[in-house]
Structure formats: structure tokens, C-alpha cells
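Input chain follows. Return C-alpha cells only.
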Amino acid sequence: MNRIEKLEAMLQEHSGDAFLTHALALEYVKAGDDGKAADLFEAILADNPDYVGSYYHLGKLRERKGDEPGAIAVYKKGMEIARKLGEQHAYNELRAACEYLEF
């Protein structure tokens, strides 16, 4: 059983677990399936908007797709959430990614 299969099996037992879903999305990124990864990151953020780590990865997926305005919007939303949560490190990473596209 590969990592994707293992994570999917774990998610069947722990439906809606943001950590497991995030890990599965990252595995899809590694496998080159950006569409499935983006769907999972979007699902995480719809159910858990404070799951700040997913904003960065979703933004990067949108960048790779050539959707710079979409990536900027994701980064800015993530920055807003990171600031609200006091997550300075996450805020700085999101800001750097956003500024790279804006300037």
C-alpha cells in the first residue's frame, strides 16, 4: 500500500481530519496530481479556514497553474488568518510569496 492509499484509508476512519487531508494533498502534489491536491486544500479551508498551512500550498498550486491573481488572493486570505491567529512565521511566508507575485 502506498502513502496515498494509506492516508485515504486513515481518512475513512477519521473523516474530515484536516491534518490527514493536508498530508494527502501534499502526497498528490508529489505525485503530480495538482487537481486533486487543490481540491483537498480547498476542502480543508472550506471546513477549517484557520488551517493556515494550506493557504501557502494552495497558492503555490495556483501559481503553477498560471493563476497569479488567484494565488495572490489565497496568500492574502492566509495572511489575514495568520495575523488573526498570531502565526508570525506563517504570515511571513505567505507575505513573501504574495510580494514575489505582486512586485
